[in-house]
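Posting for a labmate who doesn't have an account.
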Amino acid sequence: MRTLVLIASSISMICSVPSEGENMRFPVLTQDTLKTDTIAIEEILISRKMDPRSIFEAKKAYHKEIYLLGDNKDMFTFSPFGGIAVNIQKLYNHFSHRGRAARKLQRRFELEYEQDLATEIWEPLLLEYTTLRGDSLTKFKLYCNPSLDFLHEASHYDHIAYLLQNVKNYKDSADIIHNRLRLIPEDKTE
């Protein structure tokens, strides 16, 4: 994060400039009179859109400890002179609760990264080939969520055929799908 100093008349302000992917609020300086005795400050929001790879790398950088605790690779080292060395820390992390939790969180980050990549490919197709918008589109995304392998291996024609078939199925049974996706089930009073 970089620091930016703004000077207006005799008043100086210090603001922070966001780095990649951060959202920050910046004041906008405007004068409310012809004199420079007061300044009204409005807030504006500046954000940058990050690609899935940079989001994943930012998570890895922020959660360095998790990647150290979850590392269980190269626990044993074989010497060319006929010996074996055991890295006690990696062995402990392999069997400890914290090490297992760290590896579970790493898998979660990787799954989120794959979902972000799939969304980056799938979202434009949804908007282009369906008429669904708003809540229906959100529920359709939960109903029809193709895997990243399918999106990489299938052709564009297969993507569109899969999408149109699922839109047809969704529209045929929208009420059932909406009821199943509800967080709070409806009370059945008879």
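Reply:
Got it, the structure tokens are right above this. The beta strands are 2-8, 11-17, 24-31, 39-46, 76-79, 83-86.
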